[in-house]
Design a protein that fits this description.
Layout (H helix, E strand, L loop, with lengths): L54 E5 L4 H12 L3 E6 L4 H13 L4 E5 L5 H15 L4 E4 L15 H22 L8 E5 L12 H21 L5 E7 L5 H7 L2 H4 L18 H8 L10 E4 L7
Parallel strand pairs: 1-2, 1-4, 2-3, 4-5, 5-6, 6-7
C-alpha cells in the first residue's frame, strides 16, 4: 500500500528499515552519497494546494530538511528559490528537478551564507525571479562537533555563527521590506537550543540565539502581519551528521535516545514548515514547533 504524510501509522515502527552506519563525508556533504538515503518525501509527500501562488526562499534547500521543505512547498503550489553551496550542485539539481515536476517555478542560487553580499544578492535575485516573496525559510546550517573548548578553532566558532546566525540576520533584514502582510518567516533552531550536547558548544549556542531572534522579531513584525516562527528538529538523518556533525561512534545509534527510539527523517519535518507558512497558522506567532521524537522541551 502506498503511503503519504496522511497515512495512519505507528511512528515507533516508521523507518524501521533505515539503519545508519558509520560513514564520513567532507563538508558540506551530499544526500547523493548518504547511506542509507534520507527520506525527503520524494515518494510520499502529497500536496493539497495549501501554498498555491506563494513565493518562497529556502536556504540549505539542496538536502536534508531544506530539500524536504522545498519539495513539500512545491507540491503545495509554491514557487521556490533554492540557496545552497556550489559544492552541493548535484543534490540541488535533483531537488530542482523534483520541484519543476510539481509545476513550480524554481530558481537555483548557489553561494556561501557566510558572505554578506551573497545573502543580500540572494534576496534580490529571489524577488526578481519569483516576482515577489512571501515565505522565507532560514534553514542553512553548520555543525561540527568538538570535545574540548580549548581545541575549538576560532574559525570554526566564527563560521558556525556566520552560517547559522549572521546569514539569518542579513537575509531577513534584506527580505522584510519585500514581504507583504500575510508573509511568513520560518527559522530552523534545534533541540540543542534546550538540551545542548557538550560536544556542540558553538552549534548549540547558535540555536539558542535563533530561538531568541525568532521570538523578538515575531513581536516586532506582528503588527505588519508578518509572522515569524521556528521549527526545532531533534536528531534528523541528513548529511550534516556524517560531515563531523557527530562522532563516528554515535552515528550507528543516532536518535535511539529519543522516547520514540529512533532518528527522524527530513520528510517528517516538512509538514511543520508547511503549517507555519500557510494561512491556517494565522494566529501562530513567535512559536518554536518542536519535531524531535518526544524529547522534552520548555
Amino acid at each position: 500500500m502506498s503511503r503519504d504524510q496522511y497515512t495512519f501509522v505507528n511512528p515507533a515502527d516508521l523507518y524501521a528499515d533505515i539503519d545508519p552506519k558509520k560513514q564520513h563525508q567532507p563538508e558540506p556533504g551530499l544526500d547523493a552519497e548518504l547511506a542509507p538515503k534520507a527520506d525527503l518525501g520524494e515518494d510520499t509527500y502529497r500536496g493539497t494546494g495549501r501554498l498555491a501562488g506563494r513565493k518562497a526562499l529556502i536556504t540549505g534547500a539542496d538536502s536534508g530538511i531544506g530539500a524536504a521543505t522545498a519539495i513539500a512547498f512545491a507540491r503545495e503550489g509554491a514557487d521556490v528559490a533554492m540557496s545552497y553551496l556550489p559544492e552541493e550542485e548535484e543534490d540541488a539539481a535533483r531537488i530542482a528537478g523534483i520541484l519543476r515536476e510539481a509545476g513550480a517555478t524554481v530558481l537555483t542560487i548557489p553561494g556561501d551564507l557566510r558572505d554578506k553580499e551573497y545573502c543580500r544578492a540572494l534576496v534580490a535575485e529571489a524577488v526578481e525571479g519569483l516576482g515577489g516573496l512571501d515565505i522565507l525559510v532560514n534553514n542553512g546550517g553548520k555543525q561540527v562537533f568538538n570535545e574540548d573548548i580549548t581545541t575549538l578553532p576560532d574559525d570554526q566558532f566564527d563560521d558556525t555563527f556566520a552560517t547559522n546566525v549572521s546569514a539569518m540576520f542579513w537575509i531577513t533584514k534584506e527580505a522584510v521590506p519585500h514581504l507583504p502582510g500575510g508573509s511568513a518567516i520560518i527559522n530552523t533552531t534545534s533541540i540543542q537550543a534546550y538540551s545542548p550536547s557538550d560536544i556542540l558548544v558553538d552549534y548549540a549556542s547558535t540555536k539558542a540565539t535563533i530561538n531568541a531572534f525568532t521570538k523578538a522579531l515575531a513581536q516586532q513584525l506582528a503588527p505588519k502581519g508578518i509572522r515569524v516562527n521556528a521549527v526545532a528538529p531533534g536528531p534528523i538523518w541528513t548529511p550534516l551528521q556524517v560531515t563531523d556533525g557527530q562522532p563516528q561512534e554515535k552515528i550507528a545509534v543516532f536518535g535511539e535516545d529519543t522516547p520514540l527510539g529512533r532518528m527522524g527523517q527530513p520528510a517528517e519535518l516538512a509538514p511543520a514548515y508547511v503549517f507555519l507558512a500557510s494561512a491556517e497558522s494565522s494566529y501562530v506567532i513567535g512559536e518554536t514547533l518542536n519535531v524531535n521524537g518526544g524529547m522534552p522541551t520548555p
